[in-house]
Design goal:
Helix Hairpins; rod-shaped; 63% helix; de novo design (two linked rop proteins); alpha+beta; two-stranded antiparallel sheet
Length: 487
């Protein structure tokens, strides 16, 4: 089965209506021609009947007075009737009619001949004198009148039948057009109006905060394409709302963490200073246990300090110095930094074109990619495995899409939404603090980028980072290499 789009449906319905309208108009034009012919025949029959009546009138006058003027009038009207009769006969040829209607020309000739014979043979006789031709002429005259009247009656009956049939066809035609219009309206309602009503209700629901996709079948067409695009928009809006909620949550946590970190930082510095002074003054030979405890305190204090610095790094409004820089150089630098941490059997692959130039803070972007790469390496618990860093320009040539993928254990679905929360981690205390992804998230967002993750348990993870491409001076305003942004 083929599926028509909206434009094809509209054109199809227009052509269908036009076809039927043309057929109906042609049919009614044909009926109008027939009606016109019937009216003309009725007029001709009426004129012939009037001529026959005039013939009878002057016939009676002549029979009573034997006036030559009356005789001439009879011949004049007979001649006129003989000239008019062929036109009526031609009209009668196109339709079925009683056979005696075609005898009018012969009757006129017979009547004329007998009337002339009557004048020659009986004109000198008295009114009361018997004359066989008198009765014969009267009989022929009466036959002429009867034929003309029958002709009128026949045509009247024919027109009445035509009018009845025309009314029936007109009623059927109107009923057909009504049904065709109802069919067209129904199809348009099902194909266009009803889906648009659903779309309107769904849009209102989205405005109220309910992100419910529309049920869409696999049919083609503009309306179904719009509905599928609407469903994609709903999914994107829902995803954006989740990200906005995530961002707001991170912002709230960052504000809280900033205040807490500032409060904790000073006591930690005092503890670390005091511990280091105590280690300096302590005799390690005499008090080995105390020395070990002080070393532990010092290490844990340093660890706590790193956590506090991470919190401050995450929450602090930072000033970024931006500059155009090749993404391949950043990735190679990351590869060098993690070279010592790549386990045997794990292949770290870099696939970034040299022409991808970003407008970034090199140090912070390196830090973000480093955190993501270390997480990807740690996700592969049992080699062999592959960690790949790739990038490509998007379709609009405005952004670079960076992909960091691993073949590790993957992330549980319920943990995906919490992945960028500070202190959220699935690692043990020795391998992570839960701030790496949160810091990377903050760095990417402050450079007008986006980051999201796709993962399935047992099938690895893929982090997608979108960052703006550096636009050359020919395509943008004056470029300032020392430009900064404050967020």
């Amino acid at each position: 089965m083929f599926s028509l789009n909206l434009r094809q449906k509209m054109i199809g319905f227009f052509c269908l209506h036009l076809f039927f309208y043309i057929i109906i108009v042609l049919t009614f034009l044909k009926d109008f021609d027939i009606f016109t012919e019937d009216v003309a025949l009725l007029i001709h029959a009426g004129n012939l009947s009037n001529i026959c009546l005039e013939i009878r009138r002057y016939e009676k006058n002549y029979f009573s007075g034997h006036n030559n003027d009356d005789f001439a009038k009879v011949l004049e009207y007979i001649t006129k009737a003989q000239q008019f009769a062929p036109r009526v006969m031609d009209d009668l040829q196109i339709m079925s009619q009683p056979a005696h209607l075609q005898d009018i020309s012969a009757k006129l000739s017979d009547y004329k001949r007998n009337f002339q014979d009557f004048k020659e043979q009986c004109s000198s006789a008295t009114e009361l004198a018997p004359c066989p031709l008198r009765e014969k002429v009267r009989g022929l005259g009466q036959e002429l009148v009867n034929i003309s009247e029958d002709l009128i009656l026949f045509e009247q009956q024919k027109m009445n039948s035509f009018i009845v049939a025309f009314k029936s066809r007109l009623a059927k035609t109107i009923s057909f057009l009504i049904l065709l219009s109802i069919f067209t309206i129904t199809i348009l309602y099902i194909s266009i109006i009803r889906p648009l009503k659903k779309l309107e209700k769904a849009a209102t629901a989205v405005a109220d905060g309910t992100f419910s996709p529309l049920p869409v079948d696999k049919k083609r067409g503009e309306v179904h394409s719009v509905m599928r695009a609407f469903n994609k928009m709903v999914a994107d809006l829902e995803e954006q709302q989740k990200r906005l909620f995530q961002a707001e949550k991170l912002s709230s946590i960052g504000t809280l963490a900033s205040g807490t970190a500032h409060q904790i930082n000073n006591p930690l510095n005092n503890i670390a200073t005091s511990c280091q002074l105590a280690l300096t003054e302590l005799d390690h030979q005499q008090n080995p246990f105390v020395a070990r405890m002080l070393e532990t305190i010092n290490q844990e204090t340093e660890r706590a300090g790193k956590i506090v610095r991470g919190l401050l790094e995450f929450s602090r409004d930072q000033t970024f110095t931006l500059q155009p820089y090749a993404l391949a150089k950043v990735a190679n630098k990351v590869k060098q930094l993690v070279a010592s941490e790549v386990p045997a059997g794990i292949d770290l692959q870099i696939n970034i074109p040299e022409d991808i130039i970003l407008y970034i803070n090199v140090h912070k972007t390196t830090e973000a990619l480093l955190n993501l790469t270390i997480n990807a390496l740690q996700a592969i618990s049992e080699p062999p495995g592959v960690v790949s860093i790739g990038a490509a320009k998007d379709a609009d040539q405005k952004n670079a899409v960076i992909t960091i993928a691993d073949t590790g254990r993957g992330i549980d679905k319920e943990n995906l939404q919490k992945l960028f929360d500070p202190f959220f981690t699935t690692k043990n205390a020795e391998n992570g603090t839960g701030l790496g992804l949160a810091v990377a998230y903050g760095i990417i967002k402050k450079q007008n980028g986006t980051i999201h993750v796709e993962s399935e348990r047992g099938k690895g993870s893929r982090f997608f980072i979108t960052l703006p491409l550096h636009r050359t001076p020919e395509k943008t305003d004056a470029y300032r290499p020392d430009a900064t942004i404050q967020e």
